[in-house]
Amino acid sequence: MPGRIAVSEQAAAVWQTATLTGIRRETPRAATFRFAVPAWAGHLPGQHLMLRLTAGDGYTAQRHYSIASPPDDSGHIELTLDHVDGGEVSGWFHTVARPGDEVEVRGPLSGFFAWPGDRPALLIGAGSGVVPLMSMVRHHRSRALAVPLRLLVSARGPEELIYAREYGPETTPVFTRTAPEGVPVGRLGAAHLAPLLAEPPAGGWEAYVCGSNAFAEHASRLLVAAGQPVDRIRIERFG
Q1: Which of 31, 36, 85, 188 minimizes the number of CB atoms within 10 Å of its CB?
Q2: Spatial distance between the Cα atoms of 52 and 108, rounded to a whole number of angstroms
């Protein structure tokens, strides 16, 4: 099928060295970190990986991070990380990490939240929850897929909208605290979903929701109330 990618489970179980090659600021508190991983086996949009840092004294820290880059970015992966107050791994990336530094990665992991590109996708994210959804958007663009895709992304204000420079007509931003002149301020609501669910594409939407526990619960309730089948809602949450 168009957009489908095969990933080896055996390759995903092996730790690999990832070399940091670039850092791109997205918002005051979020940045994208680009890595060269020559033996990366590929991934499906929406999957994540395990990252491991090892200190000089042998202490290790491991974290799960969603992959932001599309599968076609051969030999490279990108992770977009919020600077979490008190976070030892995110703190290291935002204050210490420099191009040339090496970490270990293992993956890709989890197929439940993955989007192969073979069905209409309705993506709903808040804050850094947009990261795996952006991998889907980029995949959709890089493969020029004809299957419908729409993204609703929530942020407190324009300055906190991750990937703001990349969004196109497939994206509707929702601002909860401040917004540009003429743009309403408020929480994601039924009115944002109504036009998309009132006239769904052939075959209906596969909905992907990613964000905090509270946001994921709120968005999934809105979807169900609007008529989206429960078994066609995939949720990834954090916090």
Answers
A1: 85
A2: 14
